[in-house]
Amino acid sequence: MLTLYDYMDSGNGYKARLLLHQLAIPYRRIELDIDKGETRTAAFLAKNPNGRVPALELDDSSIIAESDAIIWYLAEDTPFLPEGRLGRAQALQWMFFEQYSHEPYVATPRYILRHLAPDNPRRSELPERQARGRAALAVMETHLATAPFFVGGHYSIADIALYAYTHVADQAGIDLTPYPAVRAWLGRVAAEPRHIPITQG
Ligand SMILES: N[C@@H](CCC(=O)N[C@@H](CS)C(=O)NCC(=O)O)C(=O)O
Known about the structure:
Layout: E1 2-6, H1 11-22, E2 27-31, H2 42-45, E3 55-57, E4 63-65, H3 67-75, H4 84-115, H5 126-144, H6 157-166, H7 180-190
Parallel strand pairs: 1-2
Antiparallel strand pairs: 1-3, 3-4
The structure holds glutathione.
């Protein structure tokens, strides 16, 4: 059985949880509390030297780290992976966008606001990060103004990657009101069969 090393408040972990549920794949979930440093123990670093969740452990003990690599692995041979050379490249395009232009500017402010003390010096990062988060949302808004989903007109892992932190952007101090196409897309994603909330394991 697959084992997912995870943390319930993590949007990166949620990507894997959501797809595992939508694919009806049974798995064992091991919660590691990032606030207690549980991803930095010798035992976990032996599995993922980067000391971060999520990480997926296969039956043969192989480990896949990085949320978008995990959902790519799970999506192989399923309708969640876009078809064709172009569709797969476009899925990667949006997943790289998520990791480089979106996650550090939506997930990280959310982490700072939810997990660090009000007097933590990292609070000073918030305005710059939130501005970049809004820039990423503007890119998504432009794309979604003429497309129902990110790739090929269908729900895919590109949507899962971008949904994970976009739907909780308010928790990062980012208001989604100026992005109507993004908000409509959030509704379409949440209406997909076997959708689960970020709070569900
Ligand atoms: N690029 C990675 C980011 C993983 C990441 O930042 N995980 C956070 C939780 S969302 C973590 O494990 N933090 C604990 C730490 O850095 O010690 C991914 O997409 O999986």
